[in-house]
Structure formats: C-alpha cells, structure tokens
C-alpha cells in the first residue's frame, strides 16, 4: 500500500483485536499503517485460547476504557477473525460513549463450518479452548445473546483465497480457508467487500489495510 499524500491529523483511536491463537504481533503492519494516517492505536493481546468470550470481554475492558478516555475523538475497532466476535460482545456490554466505526476482517459472524465439524475433537478443543466452542454456526442461547444485531457502523472484509487444502473441503466457496464469505456477512452491516487473501494474511494484505483505513475515514469501502 502506498500513499503519497500527507496523513490528515486526527484525534481518533483504534482498538485492534487479533484472532484466536494469534497475538498482537499479527496486527503490527496494520497498526503502523493506522499510525501513519494519524490514528492512535491500542493493539491488545488477550488469552484467546484460555477463556470464553464473556470472560474475555471483561479482561480487555480496563485497557479499552483507559484508552478511550484519553482520546479527543472517537474510538474505532479493527478486528481479525474471532476478534470481531469479541468486539461485538464487548460493544454490547461496554459501548464507549464516542464509538466510531468497526472493521471486521474474516470474522465468522455466521459461525464456522470447520468449528461445526471439529468442536468435539479433542485436539481442536485443546488448541482453541472455550471460545473455540462458540465459533459454531448454531450458537447456544447464551452466546447468541452476547452477539445482538449491530446498531453501529460496521464494515466487513472477507477473503477469497485459501492456503489450507484440507480445511477448504469443509467450506462452501468462496472462502478464505477458515471462513466462508457468506458467513462473514452480518445483518445491519454498513458495507462488505471481498479481497484476494487467505484468512491469516488478511491483517497484512495491502488492499485490506487500505480498505480498512478508507472505511474508518468515510464509513464505506472504495471501489473502482
């Protein structure tokens, strides 16, 4: 991604929430791009494998509350994979007064067919933990209650390439190797776009980064 124009100074901040079994380091390229455009950033690590979504919400709340309180403008959220579900659960419980926009990259808003297939496999349960059980397409009442219909500006970026031949057989096309494009969609979303990227690389994909910045600034993705 290249931008020859000087970034416009803003007083907004962005909370970055990585996906399950990932770390804040996965968002480093995105974080640097956002800072170059004048956004303050809070790139959070959280125990994605150790706790369910409800407990993770409370874990991240103090840091987000402190970060939002120090901003002059709005606080936005940019999230990868399960991080988008965590953001939805967080905003349902602790919505900031000056909430801005939310971008979700490869988030299984409709659940993951892979989780459906593997949820009872011991290796999957050990690797993905309690939150991994909440990634299924048919959620229990408690999980569904944590993820109400969005009433804020949400833009969703889906991937359409896969580097996982075995997992690909479990997903309807198109997909990013982990989540089908159809299941990234969300009732009430403001915009949706598909980029040629696999699931783990969405956070580092140049087009996805540029589209994220466009949505944070304008509330919509750019198209030719």
Features:
224 residues; alpha/beta; Rossmann fold; 6-stranded parallel beta sheet; 37% helix; 15% strand; disordered N terminus
Question: How would you describe what is shown here?
Answer:
The protein is of the alpha/beta class. It has one domain (13-218): Rossmann fold (3-Layer(aba) Sandwich). 37% of the residues lie in helices and 15% in strands. It is built from 9 helices and 6 strands, in the order βαβαβαβαααβααβα. It has a 6-stranded parallel β-sheet with strand order 2-1-3-4-5-6, sandwiched between helices. α2 (53-69) packs across α3. The longest helix has 17 residues, at 53-69. Mean pLDDT is 93; it is low at 1-5.
In total, the number of domains comes to 1
Query: Any idea what the CATH architecture is?
Result: 3-Layer(aba) Sandwich
Number of helices: 9
CATH class: Alpha Beta
User: Mean pLDDT, as a whole number?
Assistant: 93
Shape: globular
Classified in CATH, the superfamily is Alpha/Beta hydrolase fold, catalytic domain
Separation of termini? 16 Å
State the low-pLDDT regions, or none. Answer: 1-5
Work out the radius of gyration. 16 Å
Q: Strand pairing plus helix content: what structural class?
A: alpha/beta
Percentage of residues in helical conformation:
25-40%
List SSEs in N-to-C order: EHEHEHEHHHEHHEH
Q: What's the number of extended β-strand segments?
A: 6
In terms of DSSP E residues, the strand content is 15-25%
- Named CATH topology: Rossmann fold
- Largest sheet entry: 6 strands, parallel
């Amino acid at each position: 991604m290249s931008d020859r124009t000087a970034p416009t100074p803003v007083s907004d901040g962005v909370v970055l929430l990585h996906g399950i079994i990932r770390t804040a380091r996965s968002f480093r390229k995105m974080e640097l791009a956002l800072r170059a455009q004048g956004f303050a950033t809070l790139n959070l690590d959280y125990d994605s494998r150790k706790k369910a979504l409800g407990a993770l919400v409370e874990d991240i709340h103090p840091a987000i509350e402190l970060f939002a309180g120090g901003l002059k403008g709005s606080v936005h959220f940019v999230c990868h994979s399960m991080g988008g579900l965590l953001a939805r659960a967080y905003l349902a419980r602790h919505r900031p007064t000056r909430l801005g926009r939310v971008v979700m990259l490869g988030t299984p808003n409709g659940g993951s067919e892979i989780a459906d297939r593997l949820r009872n496999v011991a290796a999957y349960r050990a690797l993905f933990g309690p939150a991994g059980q909440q990634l299924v397409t048919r959620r229990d009442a408690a999980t569904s209650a944590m993820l109400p219909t969005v009433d804020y500006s949400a833009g969703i970026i889906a991937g359409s390439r896969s580097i996982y031949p075995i997992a690909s057989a479990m997903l309807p096309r198109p997909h990013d190797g982990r989540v089908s494009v159809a299941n990234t969609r969300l009732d009430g979303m403001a915009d949706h776009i598909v980029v040629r990227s696999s699931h783990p690389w969405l956070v580092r994909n140049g087009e996805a980064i540029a589209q994220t910045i466009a949505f944070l600034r304008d509330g919509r993705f750019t198209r030719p």
